[in-house]
Design goal:
The protein is an alpha/beta fold. It has 2 domains: 130 residues, Enolase-like, domain 1 (2-Layer Sandwich); 221 residues, Alpha-Beta Barrel (TIM Barrel). The strands form 4 sheets. The chain has an 8-stranded parallel barrel with strand order 6-7-8-9-10-11-12-13, surrounded by 7 helices. Strands 5-4-1-17 form a 4-stranded antiparallel beta sheet. Strands 2-3 form a two-stranded antiparallel sheet. α1 crosses α2, α5 packs parallel to α6 and α7 runs parallel beside α8. The radius of gyration is 20 Å and the shape is globular.
Length: 382
């Protein structure tokens, strides 16, 4: 497939309509559930937004409660409909103003993110370009790490999942920890034995530990299993705790956080503390692609690498525009949902995702027939 020819001048293309949908996909974990250090869930909900200009459609999405879809419909559609499609950041600014009193962090930021991604996708499609070529790209691919390893997996399933990623050529894998800290040594031993000594091993506590307990486990993780990445050992709101771990933990064990940063100020707080060795950002939470570009500049100015949190089908394009790119979390749940609901998703090759230069925009289309059984909001387009 080759990129489509431009439809018309983008500064003359107006957004005729916007529609929003939500799909709830059950997990494939034991007893239909998955766990991490602080949460248990039985499904993942994708909130999907489409923006239309004539015969051209852009799509974006976020992961959150179905209420995010209602937020898009009530607060954001009136802001973007009827406006030109040439400047997603300008529309992002208007959306930010609109939701000031409705609640900007959390669901509000996720709603804006989904619309922003759709606007960038629309502009790229109007120009007949893959999105990565519209953005100020520094890279043509994004390295990934396999992520899952939920705390309710048996050691055998845990080892099998992480080994499968390594066998696919992904040299970095992550498991969830710290729900039951005393069980982690057995789990980590099983994983390290299964994957061997060479692959990098990452852990994620999802903020489950106190400061001193986290410091204890940081040293054990590093010294006994050669763990090199400890994500949210304490709550990401505990900037002092993250800084303590960064300063007092093993030198080769990096502290990471940022997936729950919704505004630019949230990222500034993490950077100024300084609370992390590597900053994370989620394109579906931080204001979309416009937000990622802002955070990328902040990270570069502070000599920090930026890692993409999940949503691989969008992040593969967005994070090519990050100069201090580290990698992308190839998260089990999001990979399942995106492959189920969307056509045009990417598969790692040589441990990286590379955007398809022959498909305009994100290169994605909705598989409506496959998605319909999971619908919890909206109606199927005619």
């Amino acid at each position: 497939m080759t990129a489509a020819a431009p439809q018309r001048r983008v500064d003359e293309a107006r957004i005729d309509a916007v529609d929003v949908h939500a799909f709830q996909v059950p997990t494939d974990g034991p007893d239909g559930k998955e766990q991490d250090g602080t949460l248990e869930w039985d499904s993942t909900t994708m909130v999907l937004v489409r923006v239309h200009s004539g015969s051209v459609t852009g799509l974006g999405y976020t992961y959150g409660d179905v209420s995010v879809a209602s937020f898009v419909a009530s607060e954001l559609i009136p802001v973007v409909q009827g406006r030109t499609a040439d400047s997603p950041p300008a529309l992002g600014h208007l959306m930010g103003q609109q939701i000031r009193n409705a609640g900007r962090p959390g669901a509000g930021a996720m709603a804006v993110s989904a619309v922003d991604v759709a606007l960038w996708d629309l502009k790229a499609r109007l120009l007949g370009l893959p999105l990565v070529h519209l953005l100020p790209a520094h890279h043509d691919r994004v390295p990934v790490y396999g992520s899952g390893g939920f705390t309710n997996y048996s050691p055998a399933r845990l080892a099998d999942q992480l080994t499968e990623w390594v066998d696919q050529g992904i040299p970095r894998v992550k498991l969830k920890t710290s729900r039951d800290p005393e069980a982690d040594p057995h789990r980590l031993t099983a994983v390290r034995k299964a994957i061997g000594d060479e692959p990098r091993l990452f852990t994620d506590a999802n903020g489950a530990l106190g400061r001193k307990e986290a410091l204890y486990w940081a040293r054990r993780f590093h010294d006994e299993w050669d763990v090199r990445w400890f994500e949210e050992p304490v709550s990401s709101a505990d900037l002092e705790g993250l800084r303590m771990l960064r300063e007092r933990g093993p030198e080769r064990l990096e502290i990471a956080a940022g997936e729950y940063a919704y505004t630019t100020r949230d990222f500034v707080n993490l950077v100024q503390a300084p609370a992390v060795d590597c900053l994370q950002a989620d394109v579906t939470r931080c204001g979309g692609i416009t937000g990622v570009l802002e955070v990328a500049g902040l990270a570069a100015a502070h000599h920090l690498d930026l890692s993409a949190h999940c949503a691989p089908a969008v992040s593969a394009h967005a994070f090519c525009a990050v100069s201090r790119l580290r990698h992308l979390e190839y998260f089990h749940d999001h990979v399942r949902v995106e492959h189920l609901l969307l056509d045009g998703t990417l598969t790692p090759d040589g441990g990286a995702l590379r955007p398809d230069p022959g498909r305009p925009g994100l290169g994605l289309d909705v598989k409506w027939a496959d998605a319909e059984p999971y619908r919890v909001y909206g109606t199927r387009p005619a």
